[in-house]
UniProtKB/TrEMBL annotation:
One of its GO terms (cellular component) is cytosol. One of its GO terms (biological process) is iron-sulfur cluster assembly. Homodimer. GO terms for molecular function: ATP binding; ATP hydrolysis activity; ATP-dependent FeS chaperone activity; iron-sulfur cluster binding; metal ion binding. Keywords: ATP-binding, Hydrolase, Iron, Iron-sulfur, Metal-binding, Nucleotide-binding. Transmembrane segments: none annotated. Belongs to the Mrp/NBP35 ATP-binding proteins family. This is Iron-sulfur cluster carrier protein. Binds and transfers iron-sulfur (Fe-S) clusters to target apoproteins. Can hydrolyze ATP. It comes from Halomonas alimentaria. The keyword Iron applies. The keyword Ion transport does not apply.
């Protein structure tokens, strides 16, 4: 009966959520969490009610990227309380739910058995009291493993679309884009690719250059029928904004870095 109750709770949460955006990546470290937080910030800036669910079990970064390091969750009769990120100009706070809020301390490593991972996906969506949301952005674990399959199963029948975070050199290796195949096989709409670390602006001369070759990019994406939505530069202010707990999209909305996210926000 526990399973039945969990399922009911999950469905009651999902019934209040409009669009779910899964931010996926083939591997860690490509900027998936950075893209998730700024995407959520961009949607919130446009007046939407937005939640961010940090499902990256192995590297939960959303608590840091929204300035909630060390915070813990409260449990009341409505469930776990997500942390609310407020900023001037936002109609609604961004609600953040993360496994990091349930850890004993910030440096406790997380080693979950698969059964627990499944449970966690349930908890993340079902136990947090998200309330009504226009968008729930889910920062997925990297790869196309159990977590992704579990979550896709849990969300079956709801409005779910995926966004793939990647770097230019990764896109060139099309056979590594398992996430594209996953979406195609599941019939899950893939909004497109967000290319991270796609260029650098020289702080001295202002000139732009590319760290990674971009030659095959368009052709490779074209081959699998996926569009490149946005190109995010490699930028120290982007990293320092995240580390300081302020997504750059809200902190410096006129910056080139912030504006680079706009087409991805549009696509949602
Ligand atoms: P992932 O979620 O894919 O593991 P993160 O978003 O956590 O990746 O990014 C990994 C690290 O790289 C973080 O410290 C982040 O601040 C930094 N980073 C990500 N994208 C950029 C960028 N475009 N410019 C500078 N630093 C970045």
């Amino acid at each position: 009966e526990k399973g039945h109750h969990e399922k009911q709770l999950l469905e009651s949460r999902l019934a209040q959520i409009g669009q779910i955006i899964m931010v996926m990546a083939n591997k860690g470290g490509v900027g998936k969490s950075t893209i998730s937080s700024n995407l959520a910030a961009g949607l919130a800036e446009r007046g939407y009610r937005v939640g961010v669910a940090d499902a990256d079990i192995h590297g939960p970064n959303q608590s840091r990227f929204f300035g909630f390091v060390g915070e813990r969750v409260r449990l009341d009769e409505r469930g776990l309380g997500p942390r609310a990120f407020t900023a001037t100009g936002l109609d609604y706070p961004i609600l953040v739910g993360s496994l990091a809020f349930m850890m004993e301390s910030d440096d406790t490593p997380i080693v979950w058995r698969d059964a627990y991972k499944h449970d966690f996906m349930h908890h993340l969506i079902g136990s947090f009291d998200w309330g009504p949301l226009d968008f729930l952005v889910i920062d997925m674990p990297p790869g196309t493993g159990n977590e992704l399959i579990t979550l896709a199963d849990l969300l079956e029948g709801h409005d779910v679309a995926a966004l793939l975070a990647t770097t230019p050199q990764e896109v060139a290796l099309m056979d590594s884009l398992k996430a594209v195949r996953f979406c195609q096989e599941r019939g899950m709409p893939l909004l497109g690719v967000v290319e991270n670390m796609a260029g650098v602006t020289c702080p001295h001369c202002g000139g732009e250059f590319h760290l990674f070759p971009r030659d095959h990019l368009a052709a490779a994406l074209n081959e699998v029928g996926v569009s490149s939505l946005a190109q995010i530069p490699l930028s120290p202010t982007l990293a320092s904004g995240s580390d300081a707990g302020r997504p750059i999209v809200l902190d410096a909305p006129q910056s080139a870095e912030a504006r680079a996210f706009a087409p991805a926000v549009d696509a949602c």
